[in-house]
Amino acid sequence: MKFTLSWLKDHLETDATLDEIVERLTMIGLEVEAVDDRSSYQPFTIAKVLSAAPHPDADKLQVLSVDIGAADPLQVVCGAPNARAGLVGAFAGPGTYVPGIDVTLGVGNIRGVESFGMMCSERELELSEEHDGIIDLPETVLADAPVGSSFADYAGLNDPVIEIGITPNRPDALGVSGIARDLAASGMGTVKTPAVPAIEGQGDCPVSVDLSTAGDFCPAFGLRLVRGVKNGPSPKWMQQRLKAIGLRPISALVDVTNYITFDRGRPLHVFDADKVKGRLVVRPATGEETMLGLDGKEYTPTAKHYVIADDNGPESLAGIMGGEESGCTETTVNVLVESALWDPLTVARTGRDLGIITDARYRFERGVDPQFMEAGLDLGTAMVMELCGGEPSKAVIAGEVPTPDLVIEFPLSETKRLTSIDVDGDTAKATLERLGFTVGGIGDTLTIGVPGTRPDVHGKADIVEELMRMHGVDNIEPQPLPALASVGERVLTTPQIRTRLAKRTLATRGMSEAVCYSFISKAQAELFGGGDDALELANPIASDMSHMRPSLLPSLLAAAGRNVARGVGDLAIFEVSHVYRGVEVADQHRAASGIRRGTAKLEATGRDWQGNTDAVGVFDAKADALAVIAACGMDPSKVQIEAGGPDWMHPGRSGTLKLGPKVVLGYFGEFHPMTLEAMDVTGPLCGFEIFMDAVPEPRRKGTRSKGALHLSPMQAVKRDFAFVLDRDVQATAVLRAAQGADKKLITDVKIFDLFEDASLGADKKSLAIEVTMQPAATSLTDEEIDAVAGKVVANVEKTTGGSLRG
Are residues 785 and 687 in the same domain? Predict the structure, then answer.
């Protein structure tokens, strides 16, 4: 949002300087992104051509003698056809930067004749596209702006331009009047926005409005005819302001609508009444109609989009852009002024689908003040009459203008509770009233009516934010975190702690954190078990970000594809965020996911003189997944691992992590080839996803200190066992059975060999394990070791149905 300082002061009575205004805007939440103090125009001066002689060596050039207010005139070589003695214009001397040609002038030598600067055209000063000749001012200007004085002061180019960033929840700040209201509420001056004159009009408007097929898209539509207008250029002050904010002046009728859009945040539209046939109807498009827009492009709206049509067909894309066929030109004598209300979501979808970004769309999709619809029509009519003349008709108001009805019961104590700011009732009431709220109530609770300008205010916390903004964020005293009341009391919640630990764990395993959008395409969502209509976004930021993601993996796979396209084939990335399986709270989970590609293993990556690293695989993903579970405070040995995973995982190279038969903690493995093909990703890829909120919280300890470390002075004893098992017996079953044979003595069990051969029998395999026995006080005797070994064999054979290999 851009505006000039003088424009702001049309609405705000203040003695504050530019720097003070800029600082206050940022402090109340309207962050200033840029300030152009227009100092670049200060070197340009009013100059008068004393004489113009032909260049001795060029037919189209002239040598001018130019009076710039100095003791001696300067010699300037000029090629403008209108250069002549007596001309008064804008001069730029050596060292001056000329914005229109992006050149800093020096002393030139043109065909053997020195030139000390230049006389400027309007395009060279970025005042217009006119460049056929240099600026030619009437000689009477010298009475107010003598030779040598500032051209910027004369032309109004000394008005600073302020640009602020508007967050989507602040449509009230999309008009200069709204910005002035915020500044005044913060104590910087008083609002002096001119009142809107009421226009009675004579006679009925000959064009009626039909909203019978508009539904909820158009609650109300205002229209008025102004007869006998004379369209032409808008006044200089209006053109200067529009140019300053980057808009091109077109004509008085069009410039009025653009001006009110930025001045009051109320988009209007004007039709040439003589080009409108029959009544105006707000209706869905047929999908077969085309419309030539005011931007010169042809559009074909679908049945999801709404148009304003007459008997000739669509005349406007409702809320976005008018049509060329009914647009106003210099020949327009009868004009229809339109002020309407449109559904924000539909306007946003139409603009996105058709690829149109306009100032009207930008405001309507964020929400405009419904109470200003009729006043906006009157204001537009009054400005048309002021600049173009004409006689207005009575207004046609179709539909019903919604009345804001939200009332919030606000305890004054809420401000101190949420922000530590103590705002008394009188101050709070005065501040909110200056912001446009209606305030009533007595005692410690205020009854606050929310105005139509503030669709972002819904509850008590929003009121607190308003008071905090006006108090000034910079005036809030920093507060230390409260001391813990007792040992074991946490400042962070369990999900916050687990998120930090999971990120730290994965980072130490050589993975880089990625932060991806929570939105993916419908096709990707369906690929990973989602894509329900309930999770479709009403207003997606892009067509390929239409659904909430059911898994973090598609975003990570897409990121891997982008990296591969840029030559980074070995990468390990992770993300910890939310996934969405449904709209209920129970269907939304905090997950930690990661993928590895190429040779990005924990141990090493890529090529080396000692040999190449193997490609990543299922066991790399398994190790990452179990590391996350351990970071969440659960013993990974308690996790049950089942072969196979979701449909997007490789059926023979994936696993599911469970706690009991029903609780799924996550899954890991290599990706299904069809999944990779659908995601347009290639190469060795494995990944995991852990649902951290499904991991049970460990029992809280009475102290944060760790227990004493007890190390046995005795030598550990290791014994190897090999069992012949059915091929479908899981290795974890063998490990658990061996570990459970003697939980006091057996401290570790690990697999060191897997052998499969026909000599073992059909569908058989041999699994060899190493069992570590750690005595605590005395060394183990042979009898005790044999006893434990017997328990291991018996327990494994009983649990798995296998036998000790001979």
Answer: no
CATH classification of the domain holding 96 = 2.40.50.140
Is there a domain that residue 671 lies in? yes
One domain for residues 439 and 541 = no
For residues 133 and 111, is the Cβ–Cβ distance under 8 A? no
Q: Is residue 57 domain-shared with residue 180, that is, in the same domain? A: no
Note the pLDDT tens digit of each residue in 113-168: 999 999 999 889 888 778 889 999 988 888 888 999 999 888 888 899 999 999 98
What is the chain's percent helix, strand, coil content, to nearest 5?
30, 25, 45
Same domain, 277 and 178: no
Beta bridge partners of 688: 594, 668
Strands 280-284 and 209-210: parallel
Residue 447 belongs to a domain: yes
Q: Please state, in angstroms and rounded to a whole number, the distance separating the CA atoms of residues 777 and 144.
A: 107
Domain shared by 503 and 633, yes or no: yes
pLDDT at site 23: 94
Give the residue among 754, 756, 742, 750 at the shortest CA–CA distance from 785.
742
Could you tell me if 309 and 291 are in contact, meaning their C-beta atoms sit under 8 angstroms apart?
no
How many Å is the Cα radius of gyration of the chain? 38
Burial profile 33-66: b = 16 or more Cβ within 10 angstroms, e = fewer: eebeebebbebbbbbbbeebeebeeeeebbbbbb
Task: Give me the pLDDT at residue 487, please.
Answer: 45
CB count within 10 Å of CB 616 equals: 25
**Cα end-to-end distance, the chain, whole Å:** 83
Give the global pTM: 0.70
Same domain, 372 and 427: no
Q: Extract the tokens encoding 434.
A: 């200056």
Q: What is the CATH number of the domain that holds 678?
A: 3.30.930.10
Residue 463 has a pLDDT of: 96
pLDDT of residue 506: 96
Q: Cβ-count burial of 757 within 10 angstroms (0-12 exposed, 13-18 middle, 19+ buried)?
A: exposed
725: domain CATH number?
3.30.70.380
For the ranges 308-317, 330-339, 435-444, which has the lowest average pLDDT?
435-444
Look at residues 364, 380, 399 and tell me which one is the last residue of a structural domain.
Answer: 399
Nearest to 332 by CA among 255, 412, 427, 226: 226
User: Residue 29 sits in a domain of what CATH number?
Assistant: 3.30.56.10
Same domain, 178 and 30: yes
Same domain, 383 and 428: no
Whole-Å CA distances, 282 to 3, 298, 323, 353: 33, 20, 14, 19
Q: Is residue 751 part of a domain?
A: yes
Fill in the amino acid letter for 185.
A
CA dihedral of 408, 410, 416, 417, whole degrees rounded to 10: -80
271 three-state secondary structure: strand
State the residue range of the domain holding 780: 717-804
Amino acid in the structure at residue 280: L
Summarize pLDDT for 514-562 with one digit per residue, the tens: 999 999 999 999 999 999 999 999 888 888 899 999 999 999 999 999 9
Alpha helix (H) ranges present in 294-372? 344-354, 359-364
| Tens-place pLDDT, residues 369-395 | 999 999 999 999 999 999 999 999 999
Residue 236 — very low, low, confident or very high, per pLDDT cuts 50/70/90?
Answer: confident
CA distance 559 to 575: 11
Total domain count, the chain: 6
Contact 368/404 with Cβ under 8 angstroms? no
Distance (Å, rounded) from C-alpha 637 to C-alpha 152?
78
CB 687 within 8 A of CB 668: yes
Q: Is residue 102 part of a domain?
A: yes
| Last residue within a domain, chosen from 399, 432, 450 | 399
> What is the helix (H) or strand (E) element at residue 226, kind and residue range?
strand 220-227
- How does 180-202 read in b/e, with b if 16+ C-beta sit within 10 Å? bbbbbbbebbebebeebeebebe
How do residues 158-190 score in pLDDT, each as one tens digit?
A: 899 999 999 989 999 999 999 999 999 999 999
